[in-house]
Design goal:
alpha/beta; TIM Barrel; two-stranded parallel ribbon; binds zinc ion; 2 domains
């Protein structure tokens, strides 16, 4: 049994989970420090917890588990790193570099959370000749419409939509700086510890399922150059942003782009154990859900095949 876990954001405690930071940066994806500590302590008893480099070697023990963290939020250093250090657990941190380099730049999902939490006004803006309306009485429909639009637009149109949305928000409230780690802090971190190593996540967190291959390659190369500048060398690992089936292309083109960017292994968030002799460019991971109790987390980790089977049955019945 070989399994790779995927985390995103962390908070100090339950109270912090309702604080402005977590609410705006994916409250639904934030794991408390204590919860992480409990999880890792148990995982260490059950598995050989190793780095991704050991994970992808075939000739090691079969009961292996690796920790990965996506995006590049500073909470990784503030809240997760102390726990990783205490328990001596290695982790790979997949970083979308554009947001690290520019604190004024925001991922679109942050803006949508921001609107939900902070903007109680009606506003309207034009995008590609159509009018988009935010009505505070139907926040959820605005949220879901915008989400599907952002997910399906290629980068130039996505950035334009984001620009228009930001302009509309700024009529009512200021948008704070993003909560990504900064470049100098990363340099410091990688000098201080070998426990955390960086991995690629594209420069601007792009949806590789819809972008042209030249653009994907450019994004990977920019991302690698950043990693080289803060870490001293490139990373052989890449996590597909968004991670699900429609966020990557299985076509030869994606493989070529990955290969040209010196990436030997790429990871999705298709929920499964690592397969024996599986495809090195589409390695599954289990995304950790903050609302799982420790009991539920243990169940998922130990019975993933059964969980997936039951989900399939449930879907077929619906
Ligand atoms: Zn991501």
């Amino acid at each position: 049994m070989k399994l790779i876990l995927c985390y995103h954001n962390f908070v100090d405690d339950e109270e912090d989970k309702n604080g402005p930071y977590a609410k705006l940066y994916g409250q639904s994806r934030s794991i408390t420090r204590e919860n992480l500590s409990q999880q890792l302590s148990w995982l260490k008893q059950e598995f050989d917890v190793v780095g991704l480099d050991e994970m992808v070697q075939e000739d090691r023990s079969s009961r292996r588990l690796a920790i990965t963290v996506d995006d590049g939020f500073r909470s990784m250093v503030d809240h997760a790193y102390p726990v990783l250090k205490e328990l001596q657990v290695p982790a790979t941190w997949f970083i979308a570099s554009a947001y690290v380099q520019n604190s004024e730049l925001h991922p679109w999902w942050f803006l949508l959370d921001f609107v939900r939490e902070k903007v109680s006004h009606r506003f309207e803006f034009a995008f590609e000749g159509k009018s988009i309306v935010h009505d505070p009485v139907s926040k959820d429909s605005f949220f879901s419409e915008m989400r599907s639009l952002f997910l399906k637009l290629p980068a130039p149109r996505r950035n334009k939509l984001q620009e228009q949305l930001e302009q509309a928000i700024r009529q009512w409230v200021d948008i704070p700086q993003n909560s990504f780690i900064r470049e100098d802090e990363l340099i410091h971190l990688f000098k201080e510890t070998d426990l955390i190593v960086p991995g690629c996540h594209t420069h601007q967190h792009v949806n590789c399922g819809i972008e042209p291959k030249e653009f994907i390659e450019e994004e990977l190369i920019t991302n690698q150059a950043f990693i080289e500048s803060v870490y001293g060398k490139k990373s052989p690992f890449f996590a597909f942003p968004y991670g699900r089936k429609d966020s990557y292309r299985v076509e030869q083109e994606t493989r070529e782009a990955l290969r040209r960017a010196s990436i030997s292994h790429a990871f999705t968030t298709e929920r499964s154990y690592m397969k024996k002799n599986g495809d090195d460019y589409f390695i599954p991971r289990l995304t950790m859900q903050p609302n799982w109790s420790i009991k539920k987390m243990r169940y998922f980790v130990k019975n993933l095949n059964q969980v997936n089977f039951l989900m399939k049955v449930k879907r077929a019945l619906n």
